[in-house]
Amino acid sequence: MRDPYSVLGVKPTASLDEIKAAWRALAKALHPDRNQSDPTAHLRFAEVGQAYQLLKDPESRQRLDQERRMADEARRREQAGGQRSAERQAKAESGDSSLFSNLWRNMAGQANAPDKAPDLALDAQISIEDIFQKAKALVQLPDGKTLRVALPEGVTDGRQVRIAAQGHRVTGLKRGDVVVTFRIAPHPVFRAEGLDLYTNLPVDIENAVLGCETIVDAPDGPIRVTVPEWSGSDRTLRIRGRGLPGREGERGDLYAEIRVMLWDHPDDKVKDLMRSLREGLFL
C-alpha cells in the first residue's frame, strides 16, 4: 500500500477532522458508481477507505508515524555520511514499501489486496431520554436508506456498534460494514460523563447558609435531598444509582452541583448584614 497520507492527500500533521474530510471527498469522487467506465475505480476506492481506517485509529497512526520517522532518520544518516548509493536507495524504498504493505496487511488481516469494501463510519445522535426509553437510533445511509439501530446495554457517548454488510458496495468485493458511533445530544438539564449525570442545583443564599431539604430532578423522577448548612457553589451532592443505566442493572450516579443564587430583588437587611461583617461592625 502507498503512504496513507499520500493516498488521502493530507500532511502527516493533519488533524483527524482534516483526514476525515479528505476521505469523504475522495470516497465520493472515487465511488465506483460514479466511475463505472474505470475498471480500477473499486481498487482506488478501497485504498482510500483502508488509508482512512488506518489513520483514524490513534494506535495504528502512531505506529505509522514512528516507522516514518525511523525511515527518515536512516536516510538522513546515509546522506550525512556521503555513502548513499543506488543500491541503498532501492533498499530504503523497498523498506518503505514493506512498511506500508505490512501495515496494510495488519489492518486488513490478509496478505493480499482487500476482498471487502471499506466500512462506512456514521454518527447517531441520541438523547438521554432515548437511553431510558430504550429507543432505537435512526441512521441515514448515503443511498437514502434508514437503519434503525438498537441501543446497546450501557450505551455511553462514543460507544460503537458494527452492523455487518450494510456499508459501501464495491463491485467484486464483499460489502463493507456500517460502524455507528453514538453521540449523546446536549441536554438542557443534564450533562453525561460515562454513566454518570451532572445537573445544577440552585440554592438561595439563606438555604445555602442554614441548610435545607429540596428536590433534584432526575431523568426517571424527582429525588428529595438534604443540602447541608454552609454549602457553597463548590459543593456537589452525590446521589448514587440515579445516573444512566449500565449493564446487568448497573446504574451510574447523579451529581447535583450546588449553585448559590441571590434573591430576585435586593434585600436591605442582608445588605446591611454583609456590610457590617465586611467593615467589622456588629449590630
TrEMBL record:
Residues 56-96 are annotated as: Disordered. Keywords: Chaperone. Residues 3-68 form the J domain. PROSITE patterns: DNAJ_2. Residues 56-94 have a biased composition (Basic and acidic residues). Transmembrane segments: none annotated. InterPro entries: DnaJ_C, DnaJ_domain, HSP40/DnaJ_pept-bd, J_dom_sf. This is DnaJ-class molecular chaperone. It comes from Rhizobium aquaticum.
